[in-house]
Amino acid sequence: MTGFGDRDGASHLGARWSLIVPVKHLGRAKTRLARAAGDLREELALAIACDTVAAALACAATAAVFAVTEDPRARAELTELGAAVVGGEPGGGLNPALEHGARVAAAGFPGFGVCALSADLPALRPEELERVLTAASTHGRSFLADTPGAGTTLLAAAPGGRLAPAFEGASRARHLAGGARELLIPDVASVRRDVDTPEDLAAVAEMGVGPRTSALLERLPTGHADRTHGRARS
Ligand SMILES: Nc1nc2c(ncn2[C@@H]2O[C@H](COP(=O)(O)OP(=O)(O)OP(=O)(O)O)[C@@H](O)[C@H]2O)c(=O)[nH]1
Ligand SMILES: C=C(OP(=O)(O)O)C(=O)O
User: Fold this and answer.
1) How many whole angstroms from 9 Cα to the centroid of ligand 1?
2) Domain extents for the chain?
3) Contact between 191 and 132 (Cβ < 8 Å)
4) Name one Pfam family in it (predicted).
5) Is the beta carbon of 100 within 6 A of some atom in ligand 1?
6) Assuming Cys at both sites, which of 33, 184, 209, 217 could form a disulfide with 224, CB separation 3.0 to 4.6 Å?
7) What burial class does residue 36 get, using C-beta atoms within 10 Å of its C-beta: 0-12 exposed, 13-18 middle, 19+ buried?
8) What is residue 115's DSSP assignment?
9) Model confidence over 25-70: pLDDT tens digits?
């Protein structure tokens, strides 16, 4: 457990994590974005996942990113980025897929914590993720709520601990009820701002997104300003 604490641990800087990022088959992904994306829905889902994974890989607290997907295109592009792609999903949806990815990650890196991270965080900033993971290192099991406050974008378990993911719908309440500690950290908006609806897309465009998503936004029929991380800051 080097670098990690127990539930009451103090500071554990330097802990490293295996991140589990689930990516649904693109043909079925991001259906709520159909209104904004039209024929580009699958492209947009892939761009969002790629920007999320690229930012996760750039985080100093990340040991490895395990992308759980059955989609051939996502597999190829996420591998190219440097993720380890995990196939062979057991079926049954998101939570079984995350359990599967967590088992693969724990077998590969038993000394690292395991952290499920939503694939729909196109504004994700590595330094904000690092702050969240540093905070998670002081707990056995912890999570970060999404911006609206009903869902979860990140669920972390210390080495050897069970992830027990209960994502989908009102997952914040489920994770709390299941004993996970909620991480209450200021200034980590990019880790909390997931994209499910056209309104979410407009919100992240204002925050500044990664380059793949930014390029897609320019091509959308509904039109969004080109707001890459760099441009949004200037
Ligand atoms: N590997 C895998 N990932 C999944 C599965 N279901 C959902 N996900 C991923 O989990 C996250 C949240 O998924 P959802 O909000 O349920 O689906 P979505 O594709 O984002 O959006 P909608 O189609 O609009 O519901 C996204 O990163 C999805 O790619 C699954 O069965 N397998
Ligand atoms: C999967 C979840 O959210 P969403 O469907 O909003 O991405 C969740 O918050 O548990």
Assistant:
1) 33
2) 17-161+175-223
3) yes
4) CofC
5) no
6) 217
7) buried
8) E
9) 999 999 999 999 999 999 999 999 999 999 999 999 999 999 999 9
Q: How far is the CA of 167 from the centre of ligand 2 (A)?
A: 6
User: What's the Cα-to-Cα distance from 102 to each of 30, 40, 201, rounded to whole Å?
Assistant: 23, 31, 29
Can you tell me whether residue 117 is helix, strand or coil? strand
Q: How far apart are CA 216 and CA 224, in angstroms?
A: 9
- Ligand 1, pocket-test mutation among 20, 23, 24, most atoms within 8 A of CB: 24
116 C-alpha to center of ligand 2: Å? 12
Phi, psi of 151, deg, nearest 5: -105, -170
Radius of gyration over every alpha carbon of the chain, rounded to an integer in angstroms = 17
Give this complex's ipTM.
0.97
Annotated binding-site residue? 69: no
Atom of ligand 2 at shortest range from CA of 118? 7
User: pTM for this one?
Assistant: 0.92
